[in-house]
Amino acid sequence: MNRMSGTSGTEEQTLQRIETLSRSSGGRFIVFEGIDGAGKSTLMADVEAELSPSHDVVTTAEPSDSWIGDCVRQANRSDVSPFTEAMLFVADRTEHTRRIREWVDRGKVVLCDRYYGSTMAYQSVVLDRMMGADSMDWLWSLNEPVVTIPDLTVLLDLPAKTSLERVNRTRETVSKFERLGYLEEVRNAYLHLAKRDRSYVLVDATRPQRSVRREALTLVQACVCSVRGGI
Ligand code: TYD
User: Domains of the chain by range and CATH?
Assistant: First the structure.
């Protein structure tokens, strides 16, 4: 079927060849994922600074800067069904992916802050409860037809407690606990996804920023320098 739920060998090899051919221009698609406060933004800025002198780099993010991205942000602030929210994230991603494909086809290295992993991790935690089942399969069936599998996804992993201490959010105790619990579930969903998705590489983000940066840069350089699409 697909790379998430067990493609047959030949089918997957064909898909990989197509992806490789479409990226023969040298373009790459690299995604950064992690719970809030994991340090994605700082890391992306570091990677951009490192690659820019030698590569044509584009940085982008989800929710995107388009009108659909604005709808997503509006939905975040409103009382909408978690199903609506999930589908809005995917609608935004559908259009964003068309832009990403164009950049990659033009030989650019695209660095993206959040992609389908965010929907799979954040929305699955809420939807599991509503659907009474593993919602990841449903979320993947929405995403699969519209996404491009990244050449590399860097998952910055750290406990929710550490991430919240880092962002230094001031909230009253109960909601802080609720948020802490939610983010810990999101972290576990990311770890589950990382085992199923071969674009994912786990980076231990509890270490000093310098070490995280060094490891991520090594991964990114290997991806950018590789002949094939993917490392
Ligand atoms: P973002 O602007 O990246 O926040 P931050 O800079 O704090 O990482 O994302 C906003 C929130 O949207 C973030 O808490 C994660 C959430 N989100 C989802 O729940 N699903 C998604 O598909 C995406 C892209 C983001």
Answer: 33-224 (3.40.50.300)
